[in-house]
Amino acid sequence: MATPSKTPPGADPKQLERTGTVREIGSQAVWSLSSCKPGFGVDQLRDDNLETYWQSDGSQPHLVNIQFRRRTTVKMLCIYADYKSDESYTPSKISVRVGNNFHNLQEIRIYLPVSMQLQV
Q1: Most distant CA pair in the chain: distance in Å?
Q2: 53-68: b or e for each residue (b if 16 or more CB lie within 10 Å)?
Q3: 8 inside domain
Q4: Which InterPro entries does the entry link to (predicted)?
Q5: Which of 10, 31, 64, 103 is the one with CA 20 to 30 A from 1?
């Protein structure tokens, strides 16, 4: 999601989108995963249904790659994780990396699962 200014942690991204504070830009990107179990891929990751999810199927690290066709400024990344429902699959660390291609990515932020609304 792109946003013109900082938003408070814990703000509802859907409400922010309805009020015009942020704009969802994920549909402008190509999404890929390091691995996934059948029926638990990109479509489930992005479908806005809290009952569906991505489930990896391989060794770590588990990666979600989001590639935009042109240079794009991203100021907020919202990730829903439900630790109470399944702590074994909740990430212990999220690394946000940026670059011009997959081979020159640089880590710009590391987040712990306390707050999954990330200001980038």
Answers
A1: 40
A2: bbbbeeeeebeeeeee
A3: no
A4: APC10/Doc1, APC_su10/DOC_dom, Galactose-bd-like_sf
A5: 103
Amino acid at 76: M
**What tens digit of pLDDT does each residue of 25-68 get?**
999 999 999 999 999 999 999 998 888 889 899 888 899 999 99
Q: Which residues contact 63 (CB under 8 A, 6 or more apart)?
A: 33, 34
Q: How far is CA 113 from CA 29, 43, 82, 94, in A?
A: 24, 23, 10, 8
Query: Which of 48, 5, 2, 49 is CA-nearest to residue 25?
Result: 2
Give the length of the chain.
Answer: 120
